[in-house]
Amino acid sequence: MTEPTPTAQRLLAADGPLSATFPGYESRPGQLTMAAAVEETLRNDGILLCEAGTGTGKTLAYLVPAILSGRKVVVSTATRALQEQIATRDLPMIGELLGLSIHARVVKGLSNYLCLRRFEAARITANVGEKRSLNVIGEIEHWRRTTLQGDISELHALSENDSIWREVTSSSDTRVGSRCAHHADCFVTKMKREAEQARLLIVNHHLFFADLALRGAHPGRVLPNYDCVIFDEAHQLESIATDFFGRSVSSGRIEAMLREGARALELARALGVRVDAESPVRVLRVRSEDFWQAMTRATEASPDTRVVVERDLWSGAVADAWHALDTALEQWSETCARAASGMEQTGTTASGALEALEQLSARATESRNALSEIAEGANGYVSFLERSARTLTLSSRPVDLSHTLRDRIFETVPAAVLTSATLATDSAEKDGAFRYVRRRLGLSPELAVTELVVPTPFDLENQALLYTPKDLPSPRDPVFTQRAAERISELVRLTDGGAFVLTTSLRAMRQLSALLRRALPDRDVLLQGDAPKNALLQAFRGSGRAVLVATLSFWEGVDVPGRALRLVILEKVPFSVPTDPVLGARSRALEEEGGNPFMDLVVPQAAITLKQGFGRLIRTKDDRGIVALLDERVHRRGYGTRLLRSLPPAKRTHLFEDVRQFCTKHALGAAP
Known about the structure:
Layout: H1 8-12, H2 17-21, H3 29-44, E1 46-52, H4 58-69, E2 73-77, H5 80-98, E3 104-106, H6 116-124, H7 131-144, H8 165-168, H9 187-197, E4 200-204, H10 205-213, E5 228-232, H11 237-242, E6 247-250, H12 251-270, H13 279-299, E7 306-308, H14 316-346, H15 353-376, E8 381-387, E9 392-398, H16 402-410, E10 415-420, H17 435-441, E11 449-454, H18 460-463, E12 464-467, H19 480-495, E13 499-502, H20 506-519, E14 525-527, H21 533-543, E15 547-550, E16 567-570, H22 581-592, H23 597-614, E17 625-629, H24 633-636, H25 638-646, E18 651-653, H26 656-665
Parallel strand pairs: 1-10, 1-11, 2-4, 2-5, 3-4, 5-10, 12-17, 12-18, 13-15, 13-16, 14-15, 16-17
Antiparallel strand pairs: 6-9, 7-8, 8-9
């Protein structure tokens, strides 16, 4: 008699095979509830919105149903680190302990893979006068002979941030498809073949939306067709997707095109093609520099790093510089196309320069089109100039993504699961706790959406204390930072360290860290940016008494279970930067519809980020600790009630004496 197909609930249950083979395994009712809901969604199609509190075990709750479904499932995570965790820890454990056959493939963005065509061009044209350049090329050459995947993270001798990778890795800009002389041996081609065969694809949100924006015959497309998608950390979807459904042109991107083009044109000339390999590069570089300088001068009155570019800015000196750049890009495109044609006529195609030149011609045309679209200012888009230390980027971004996401995902993919520890914003909302995320992601009422909130299994009322003092000045007060540092120092002395201090800006981070280093000379005050993130976390865990001061990148996705982290201090409510061009455009759109931008957009975003910050504290049933929010506005502003209501059900106080008693009760101070 044929054995019945096991269900996810059966495999994860207290008397199931996982419990029998995994020492210390605890069956979690919330995990079983979520697993059943995911299984139902994947079996019968539909959309599931599931907030799964910390400690639910949501990764297993969606992975096991995905494996059992037998369908082609994409699991999209927020970070590459979570991709690696699923691939190297979770899936092998599931396969071994549950006896399941898993055909999975981790798929990374194209820039993670060595491009043989680009590497060959870089190797041929390597500057013999630069010893480091030759040494780096040699390192890569040695590695590429043995690597099976071509994933640059395998080559530990070089940092993943090394500048050489920009010259020799793949990208949607540089893919030429089956015309490439290296197509048969291409690492991206191999990855795509393996992805076609796999039943479970592990990707990240950036790759998912980059692929979604290229759906069709574009050679830069990565993912095969799929039946279902599971989004983990789904609260990040709108923010990440926004970057992939607009247009961008940057000074760095044009410079990269020039560097690669200079090599390709020089190689074409060396192979006998009659081509000017110098003046096209020189002209385009000058015209590009002129354009970016004109944009800088036109926006220099604004102190913001992101400056809205209105339609009337495209006049005068900016218009002249733009038209000159457009002409130079057109000439560059024609030069590369003629050189490619010359190579084809001579029959010298083995070097890969022919494909590179054809692709460079197309990239120049793409840059022209992007600049034109940004200058024309399409309805429903906001344009802005972003300034950083290395590059200037001109972008156009959609104001409302809801229709795009609904049309291209939720009405196209048969089954979709969206999960996170922070999706619901306010249980008292008349349209439900998921009102905000449903509106932002296009999950309109006519779509059949199942909503599920799985509470944390932890006893937060006894394990955690939320401290929201009333006696500190407003964050707008000039003395706030000094007073906040004094209160943080008092809290750190109570707990003997083990503290995250999470700020909402780099400026506040630097000011607080300087003040804390003076006030707490007897302990390590670690600062984001002083070392890589993993190194900082390792030092923090190892110390047991350290204080780590960091900005928003540490508000989520950081896991420090146990006594090492027993105090999380949130400097103030993490409201979005009001001058951000995309936020401003979305606020205006909401206002035109009769909504309240602050309450309908800014406050829900802040609530989700606050929940993420709170979630750093209690990671296991044995953890104990304090979350302190130093922003007194939550007590006297109308939005404060909504924000506090969105936070987990920890015991709450505004009195410092209650904090002292909680520390004593749970022995959070110096270890005995």
